Amino acid sequence: MDRIILGDRGGVMDAWVxxxxxxxxxxxIGQLLxxxxxxxxxxxxxxxxxxxxxxxxxxxxxxxxxxxAALAGLNNLWVWGEFYRLDVNTNTVNFGSQYQxxxxxxxxxxxxxxxLIASSFNNxxxxxxxxPVELWATWLIFRELY
Amino acid sequence: MAKRVILGxxxxxxxxxxxxxxxxxxxxxxPAGSKGISFDSRRNDFGIFHQRGVWTWGDPTITFPTxxxxxxxxxxxxxxxxxxxxxxxxxxxxxVGAIPYSTTPFVGIVTVSSLEIRQFxxxxxxxDYTGFLTKFLYTIFAIETP
Lengths: 146, 146
Fold this sequence. Notes:
Radius of gyration of chain B: 21 Å
Oligomer: heterodimer
Strand order of the largest sheet of chain B: 4-12-6-7
Structural class of chain B: mainly beta
Number of helices of chain A: 0
Low-confidence stretches of chain A: none
Number of strands of chain B: 12
Number of helices of chain B: 0
Distance between the termini of chain B: 39 Å
Strand content of chain A: over 45%
Largest sheet of chain A: 4 strands, antiparallel
Mean pLDDT of chain B: 83
Helix content of chain A: under 10%
Order of helices and strands of chain B: EEEEEEEEEEEE
Strand order of the largest sheet of chain A: 4-10-6-7
């Protein structure tokens, strides 16, 4: 069974790859891994950054993360990201719950002038000297603008 | 130098494959599941999207060419400052007005050919999200939900 076409299929030039068990010559909608000139979530940059702490972090703040030079000057790229709390003594990660507003998991991301702005909406002091914590963000930036 | 692209037979297997590695990783020798592999035609699903776009509150229900399955999808709200809210949370008083509850104010309902983004409805919450009625980024993946 043919799985891969590099070139023309039905008058459309592309890299065509069908899902396992599907003939690439006849693969229809939803049966392709590549091809039909549809996009993929190609990651342009990704990272994991400590934003605040230890031992504590507190009120709402915007944190600026410098992106690779290839993204210089770009705005409003598509971002997936999460904020999380690192408990230093136990080296454990706490993502919180999506049902907890105004805590460390609550925030937003925006690409402005080639920088990633991570806006934390946490509004209470988290952590202490004996129980230090850090605020982190993990993120992916995709090719598309919005 | 590491081999970055394999198009053809891989190992002793009879099938032809397309396998691509990330920079610094060998497409021929990296094990299955390695983060050094960016594409492998032997896997069932890939981050290819079927349709994506920006949907503004009040627009008609999103439609897309009919898939042979109910797809995986993702929605992210863009707030009034053009920031992407990755985990939407809101605190609202319950109908009695005594105890605050947190809720996720928006949900997506997907079929084989449509995606409806609407407010979460729950008798315990007052459905008053006027300031949240902005726009959403959405992605319909060519991936079947389990």
